[in-house]
Amino acid sequence: MTTTPHSTDLIRLTAAEMAAKLRAGEITSVDLTQAHLDRIEAVEPTLNAFLHVSAEEALTTAAEVDKIRVAGGAEAEKLHPLAGVPIAIKDLIVTKGQPTTAASKILEGWMSPYDATVVEKIREAKLPILGKTNLDEFAMGSSTEHSAFGPTRNPWDIERIPGGSGGGSAAAVAAFEAPLALGTDTGGSIREPGAFTGTVGTKPTYGGVSRYGAIAMASSLDQIGPVTRTVEDAALLHELIGGHDPKDSTSLPEPVPALVDAARTHDVAGKKIGVIKQLATGEGYQQGVLDAFNSSLDALREAGAEIVEVDCPSFDYALGAYYLIMPSEASSNLARYDGVRYGTRVLPEEGPLTIERVMGATRAAGFGEEVKRRIILGTYALSAGYYDAYYGSAQKIRTLIQRDFDAAFEQADVLISPTAPTVAFKMGEKTDDPMAMYLNDIATIPANLAGIPGINVPAGLSDGLPVGIQFLAPAKEDARVYHAAAALEELLGGKGEVIWQQIPDLASSSVDV
Ligand code: GLN
Prior knowledge:
By secondary structure, the protein is of the alpha/beta class. Helix content is 40%, strand content 12%. It is built from 19 helices and eleven strands. Its EC number is 6.3.5.7.
């Protein structure tokens, strides 16, 4: 087996290409992993995409894979196609032997006694785990500025945010710190950072990937999914992490569908693609985003797809419904951080040490502003006398949104819209205006409310910043979003290469942090 120097070229390959070179014995996993660790060391002072880097663990796994490959035989044959390709994990997903913080002071220093099911699968498949990525505290946000451990910067422009809540995973993949990452998407936290960083990200069908070990934000909306630079890579990772899990009571009984095959077929001739009227125009959409969207529609049309318009009138209420259902569930899920069972404990400065007062002091010191805002909103929406008016109405809207999707999918195989109304905004621009922050997710939230799959695929640049397009499909039809996204990726220049050639060289940037 030959060894390759830790070149920057190596980290710019797709995960599928890395895997092929590993299989062919052209590179070793140790070299590949070290190349990513070197990159992390070089750019982390600027980006802050990682909350924890696990170099030793990653290199141990890499050495194990290399040893199996060198020995050959049945063991080597049995290796997973992605074995030896490194991965980063959003710090909302629990990992044994590495801290899990949810980017919150309330979990600072906490070590999970168990692995999430997706992490177990990644370990079994022997992907070196590079570390845990930054996020908005408890995944509440759209910019990663709500992290208790400092914001992540966007590698395309370090004065801008990388999206959120999964800004760490998206920035790490965009900046070649990792070829693969895991995210979670409750209202868009995989897809919106994907749009802002030029990365591919999928929110799978609800129940398609186990949530066991994903720290709960809003349990009826949360989904773990892949973050990558190409559609094929996302499909490879999605197939690895997907499928039934008896430990998750909402897990679908079906095996994961054939997504890699779907991502390798690019023919859209005769396919019906529905433009969601409510999500493709209007106030708040930047012209550069609409231009990229329209160019994508033209490309799909020229390739033989039929573009139709679909009407989803209830989507106008999706954001309102989401910001009642999500905080209601979050307020209940976050009740467990009480300073008694695990995590941080803060004692009141004076007065008696009652359990209520310890809980109060712990939660006051441990949670950030945005988390507190949502807990208050959620407990209010669920309180006696308001439950029907707020939570109950929001659930009715949820049903109407599901019906809008059902009707739309009678007219089209997949639906399409811009993933976010704008490109990445400047740091600090929306931190004082929660409503402006919430509006980023206007296009991504309906899929979570309906439990259907969605993918973000890069669709070129607007003034040097990535624009993302979203495809949506009916529940359990995840293969359709991969097929459509791979087709668009191909039509726009193939595997996003056109985009990646233009990303600024971070080696020359530096910021005071
Ligand atoms: N940005 C949305 C929110 O703040 C979505 C978050 C997510 O998907 N985790 O709730």
